[in-house]
Design a protein that fits this description.
The protein has 13 helices and no strands. By secondary structure, the chain is mostly helical. Among the domains are: about 160 residues, no CATH class; about 70 residues. The radius of gyration is 39 Å and the shape is globular.
Length: about 325
């Protein structure tokens, strides 16, 4: 063979070998590989790569916190509620429409009854509040006893027992649990306050979690300490205290509402100091005749007639146009 022929045969063999090798080796894949567990996910198309981005984590739903009436400050002291525990506890429950309607009806009846008692015993309630503020414990206890004796249906049965039947079995159990927990926390804090001990205990333990040690630290068996009273007397004493505070809040709300409306009217008519004093004398007389409650329509009409006798026609229009919800 000639040299040209041998070269041609060698080239053909090389081409055949390359073709066979291509058939036996797999073609490279074009699919995006799955990231290894814990590795950062690949950026979306068109999104610039972020070398600092960590792995994508799907958030898990957190367990709802258990409802409670207890809240403590940084020193561990129990924070007072701005209303009766029963009302605050009801606001924490998920009530059905039927439960809500029944509870609203009971609350309306309660507010009406409180207003009646406040009007009848206004002088005693004011004296009771004054005695409490001045530290005259004997007078305060006497007035509290007189009010309880005169209006037994306001204190018995306890408010919690009036609301519980309107709730489902589950809500009633939660309702009573919230109240018992808060009552124990109050009792433990009161015992600790007598000793000046750290409210959170030597190791940061809440007294609500261990009321027995708190009572032991309090020491003594003073008759005034509710923790030393029989359970029935403790419950009666607590109900009396809560109900009297409820009456006090109603009185304060009534007074504040009257003051706010009075200020709105004085501002609306641009009353001079002399005119304002004359009007306030009329308002005070009306309040004295209707203590703890709003005047009757007849009494309100008479009060308005006296005030309008002091005003100009323009001031009368301004008085009528003054906001009624302040």
């Amino acid at each position: 063979m000639t040299a040209r022929t041998l070269a041609a045969l060698a080239l053909a063999g090389t081409l055949l070998a390359s073709a066979a090798l291509a058939r036996t080796e797999p073609a490279p894949s074009t699919a995006t590989p799955s990231p290894a567990p814990g590795a950062p996910s690949a950026p979306e198309a068109g999104e610039p790569a972020n070398p600092l981005r960590g792995p994508s984590i799907t958030p898990t739903s957190a367990t709802p916190a258990k409802p409670t009436l207890i809240s403590r400050d940084f020193a561990g002291k129990l924070q007072p509620l701005d209303n009766r525990p029963e009302y605050v506890a009801l606001d924490l429950l998920k009530l059905s429409d039927t439960e809500r309607a029944a509870i609203d009806k009971l609350r309306t009846q309660r507010a009406t009854r409180i207003a009646q008692v406040l009007q009848v015993h206004y002088a005693k309630i004011v004296e009771l509040q004054g005695a409490g503020q001045s530290g005259d414990r004997a007078t305060a206890m006497t007035k509290a006893h007189e009010i309880r004796q005169a209006e037994p249906d306001l204190f018995d049965p306890p408010l919690a027992d009036r609301f519980a039947p309107a709730l489902t079995t589950e809500n009633a159990a939660t309702f009573k649990s919230l109240l018992n927990e808060y009552a124990q926390a109050e009792l433990a804090d009161r015992a600790l306050a007598k000793t000046g001990a750290d409210p959170m205990g030597p190791e940061g333990e809440s007294p609500a979690d261990s009321p027995a040690p708190a009572r032991r630290r309090a020491g003594g068996a003073g008759r005034a300490d509710p923790g030393n009273l029989p359970p029935a007397l403790q419950a009666a004493r607590r109900e009396t205290m809560l109900t009297l505070r409820e009456i006090g809040r109603s009185l304060k709300s009534t007074v504040n509402d009257r003051q706010a409306r009075s200020e709105a009217h004085m501002k609306a008519i641009g009353a001079s100091p002399e005119l304002e004093e004359k009007i306030r004398q009329i308002l005070r007389a009306s309040a004295a005749a209707n203590p703890g409650s709003e005047p009757t329509p007849e009494a309100r009409a008479e009060m308005t007639r006296k005030i309008f006798a002091l005003l100009t026609p323009e001031q009368r229009r301004q008085w009528i146009a003054a906001p009624k919800d302040r």
